[in-house]
Amino acid sequence: MKKILLIEDDSDLFALLKYNLEKEGFQMVGAQTGRGAVDLCRRERPDLIILDIMLPDSDGLDICKGIRTHPELSHIPVIFLTARASETDRIVGLELGANDYIVKPFFVRELIARIKIQFRQLAQPVRKLQSGPLDLDRSACRVSLNGNPLSLTATEFRLLEFLMTRPGVVFSREQLLDAVWGHDRAVTDRTVDVYILRLRQKIEDDPAAPAFIRSVRGFGYSFNEAANQPAAAMV
Known about the structure:
Mean pLDDT: 89
Low-confidence stretches: 228-235
Function: This protein is a positive regulator for the phosphate regulon. Transcription of this operon is positively regulated by PhoB and PhoR when phosphate is limited.
Distance between the termini: 28 Å
Protein name: Phosphate regulon transcriptional regulatory protein PhoB
Organism: Paludibaculum fermentans
CATH architecture of the largest domain: 3-Layer(aba) Sandwich
Keywords: DNA-binding, Phosphoprotein, Transcription, Transcription regulation, Two-component regulatory system
CATH topology of the largest domain: Rossmann fold
Domain OmpR/PhoB-type: 126-225
Number of domains: 2
């Protein structure tokens, strides 16, 4: 049973959605406040998040950013459900990492249909990732640059894969350690710098002026969203 986390401050709408989605066979959890939303997501580990933007104590956009920059949560689909209907609002929401954006008022059946679309997409993960001349084949654990195969260690591959699947998101060294090395690790923050340097030496034309993996001073590292191309279709 898929678990959906709903964050919606309107009590009537919260109850309506909870009833209809449970009737559809989903397990529902949630809150009517945005305070502590990211921690709630960590505890519940939902398969999908439905998020209002205009919450009385929080901004749904900030919550979405918190989810997208958290290594344990960044893969979870987020659907915004909001009264903000302008083109700018939609663009901002999607650029922050939302998978879908639904404007109130809406049809419950449409919401359910869009939820099912997200789950179908999750069931068919992208096998190949591409960013310009850089290709990563997840099933074959291969990376090539300009068609030439690269020799990466298992850890280098996991680090590159993690960054490529989340273009534009800035991760701290601690977040990368948790995501790639796991919680049970005997390594330091400096380890991330060493592996980033090794990756740059293998994938960058000029490691001193990287095009793919950029440093964000005072924060960490990010895969260059501008260089990222749409992922190749599954084969």
